[in-house]
Amino acid sequence: MNDKSIIELFRIRDEQAIAELKLKYDRLCCHIAGNILSRREDIEECINSAYYDIWNRIPPDEPDDLKTYLCRIVKNKAIDRLKYNTAAKRDSQLSVSLDELAECIPDRRDDNISAQELAASISRFLRTQDERHRKIFVRRYWYGDSLSKIAEYFGMNEKTVATYLFRTRKKLKEFLKKEGFEHE
Question: Per the database record, which ranges form the RNA polymerase sigma-70 region domain (predicted)?
Fold first, then answer.
């Protein structure tokens, strides 16, 4: 079933919408949540919570891209769960990747920064990158994949992946400065 049909099922409040969403995207959701959380129970709870949120959000929300919409919700739920589980401990792979990204993205606590504008700028930047660099960046910072998993996926050395990411973050920081986003 295509995404528009699934969204229509949500709009008419047909419970089959959840089953279709789960059938189509459950593996992707498990991958995203699994890269952030380690316990199976937490992953399942996070995904079920995301499905529940989508049920409550559509309508009134009308996402243009159901897959991205769902992935964002799952990722945010998993991050919230990780924060809850670890409280002061900061030893997860996701914490490392988010710390890396924090070096080049301005602090959102600055009232002058709109999340939508920042996201649009990052998307514009990624469209300027070659396909391999863009995919490596997305695998690391969107899906939360480890360096070793990315290296295996692309048939590369881990150090090469780390170098690609370092250079891409450096370019992103410069791009964001040109876009008017000051860091520091």
Answer: 24-85
